[in-house]
Amino acid sequence: MVGGGIVGLCCAWWLRAAGASVVLFDPSPGTGYSLGAGRMFRHAHRAPEHARLAARASLLWDEMTNRLSQVDRPLLARIGALHTMPCRDALAPLEGSLQETEHDYELLPPGSVAGRWPELAIDPPAALFDPHGGRIEAAAAIRALRDDLEEQIALARVDGLRAGGPGPDVQ
Fold first, then answer.
1. Could you read off the pLDDT of 23-34 as tens digits, one per residue?
2. Which residues pair with 36 in a beta bridge?
């Protein structure tokens, strides 16, 4: 694997869990674009297939949480996800996708967001709440994955890949 951000670390971890021999190349895993406390997780997508994939991913985050010994809280914090739009019609594709995939959601009437979440200081004309969405605890996940994959991480920069032999030649 080349790249040890949250996606590369997760891919390497799942590949190793499936029995693959893994080496992850990154000079400083988890410190690039993946750095930060959390990432939004949602089921509300325009494409129903993406909503189904999100449902599958949420189960995988739970499994990873249970299998990583260094983790003391869920890596996917299900605190809900709020989607705001400039008009009600703009929410229709998200609502349709959630209905098709039988995910829970709540359409919020205009003027209700500010009353429910006053700390947001917004009151959009259209909003949808995904109660099972939330935040991926990216910083905690990166730490736990980096620790768990320590023996599979090569702290090296990759300048190129060349096809050869049974696998790529890493330069």
1. 988 888 877 766
2. none
